[in-house]
Amino acid sequence: MTDKGDRDKWEFYHDHNVKHHKWRWRRTAPNGRIVGASTQGYADKEECIQNAERNGYVRPAS
């Protein structure tokens, strides 16, 4: 799930570097710098998305 153009890019990914494979999010600015990231992993992807929403993520219109 990402935004296009000059907007920040949001990524939701499964962290395979930890024992329990948690969901995490990362926000990248157009210049390629990471400007935000989840501070913890989430067992459920929906919980991860809800945390990202509290940090500025807007779900795409369906």
TrEMBL record:
<protein>
    <submittedName>
        <fullName>DUF1508 domain-containing protein</fullName>
    </submittedName>
</protein>
<dbReference type="InterPro" id="IPR036913">
    <property type="entry name" value="YegP-like_sf"/>
</dbReference>
<feature type="domain" description="DUF1508">
    <location>
        <begin position="21"/>
        <end position="50"/>
    </location>
</feature>
<dbReference type="Pfam" id="PF07411">
    <property type="entry name" value="DUF1508"/>
</dbReference>
<dbReference type="InterPro" id="IPR010879">
    <property type="entry name" value="DUF1508"/>
</dbReference>
